[in-house]
Design goal:
Blueprint: H1 15-33, H2 46-50, E1 56-62, H3 66-75, E2 83-86, E3 112-116, E4 133-137, E5 150-151, H4 159-168, E6 169-171, E7 184-188, H5 194-205, E8 218-221, E9 223-224, E10 226-227, E11 230-231, H6 234-238, E12 248-251, E13 255-261, E14 269-276, E15 279-291, H7 294-304, E16 307-308, H8 310-315, E17 322-323, E18 332-342, H9 357-370, E19 383-387, E20 398-405, H10 411-418, H11 423-433, E21 438-445, E22 453-455, E23 466-468, H12 478-494, H13 497-500, E24 505-506, H14 522-532, E25 534-540, E26 567-569, H15 583-602
Parallel strand pairs: 1-2, 1-15, 2-12, 6-7, 15-26, 16-17
Antiparallel strand pairs: 3-4, 5-9, 7-9, 8-19, 10-11, 13-14, 14-15, 18-21, 18-24, 18-25, 19-20, 20-21, 22-23
Amino acid sequence: MPTGIITYDITQLQGAFANAFLILINTLFFNVKLIGEYNQYPVDASPKLLSEEETIFDFIIVGAGAAGCALANRLSEQDQWSVLLLEAGDYPQTTSAVPGLFPTFYESTLETWQYELEKDKEVCGAYKNKRCWMTRGRILGGTSSINNLHYFRDYNADAFTESIFNSIEYYADESTDVYPKGDIHLEKKSTNHRIETVLKEAYSKIHIDASNKRNPLGLMYSYLTIKEGERFNMARAFLTPVKSRSNFFFAKNAMVDGIVTHDPLDKRAKGVNVTISNVRFFLQARKELILATGAINNAKLLLSSGIGPREYLEKQKIPVVLDLPAVGSNFQAHITVPLFVGLGTDCDECFRDQADQVEFIRDVFDYIMFRTGSLSNIGVHGLTLFTTTDQHPTHPTISIQHNFFSIKDRMLPAWINGLKLDQIIVNNLLDINEVRPVLLFLITLLQPKSRGVIHLNHTHFKSNPAITGSFLQDEDGEDLDNLVSGFSLVTNLTSLNPLQSVGAEFLDIGVPGCRNYKFCSLHYVKCYIKNMLYPGSSVAGTTRTGADCDRKAVVKHDFEVRHMRCLRIADSSILNNISPGNAVAHDAMLAVSLSEVLKEKWIKDYVSPFKSNK
């Protein structure tokens, strides 16, 4: 998109029309200021911390993503407790509030952690430096402030977990008599775009029907974290309502680099070392220290603090505080393969619509003034297929999301550059989009069997960690087989009349390493998948749960790190197996579950309202 300042001479603009023009400009400026306004978020308490006005808190939470925001909300309900929430990033920018602009955040270095995974010659050959890349939110609200706004969780949960979910969710299209009005506002959005109709007709040809919230198999409009046309991130959901609580403190741009413990004989978390405005200092937690920075940074923080496998820490010359062999292992991520389909331009029924400058200006005006138009939703991307490759399904194994790009669509460069695709592929796709629309299918493996590992960066422990994905390396080859099934479903779909009627054609985008295989043969498909896959933002498993005596576990069932009192972990990194839902939903649920554990420990005679559902 064009940037910079353009000047115009409007000295001849006078009279009534000049007044009308100024009213329009002033109105636009006024309404732009209201998009994602900062004052809806908690005030930054960094000055108080730096001046040592406040340095001791009952609870310190590291990471203001979904888990950190939810936990801060629930703990600060108790007036007698002081709660500090630390976030490495800043407030969300105005752009993050606009749903239709979510693809522009994939390449942002200000609001995201940009992780470059260790090189694996078997996968990710189609990306920059022939490596996999991963994007996570480094911003208040975490990944919920920069993701695609989808909210999907495990609807086959046990009664206790289901009751927690029901307490935090509000489905705007359902009766509050059945489901209470929870914290997270969720809406379904559909469009009138013709490609959406075509896709539904094509899926119906292979007997894939619409599903409802309680049976997440089939074609559905995903629930989205949108309210009144703006992104409803987890900071808005959990922190905006409590930002005025006198016992709640929030600090932004606060980089935690170490967990401080008591002497070796007293294994108890004491607090954290944190850097704000280039000043490094210590903050003390009277009661508990909780990590909620996600599966990647939780492992990094533990390892750099001397909590992890003894042999590895000694090799890195890091003093061993606690020998926990499983820290950093069991890394899991949802894996996505993008498939690009070109649409025809040579028949009356095909898509001739080119990205129109006037239409774009109208969309921008509608959004600024009324929070309506194409920027107020995510278009056809909200239409999602959940399917399974298991014979007796209980959970979806594969999801397929969609995106549509008009001819010369300004969003396509943002999307493919954000993925960090090889420049040859980028150029091929942009050349194709110069003359024809592009339909994108995103095939995602929701329950991968492969397991990776996270280590510290050997040259600089404080830098991004070394992530080995080990994608598609499960012993039985099930992950690759499942993605091949998803790929076949899409190619079969494009051969059916509804998509053929609009000239659908699977595109040869010049994937490196696959040119020697016959296009669309099984060998080509497997080569394409291996080279084009990338890890999504939902990650889990690096501090998994188990019994106190289980050396393969990092935390116990009460979220506390084994053999380390008052140190807890509050997000999807504690899961043994990644959820088929996205991490945002499950992080919030886990945090509320932990809040109940902490209340039962620190409040005399407290009985959790969810206890009866266990």
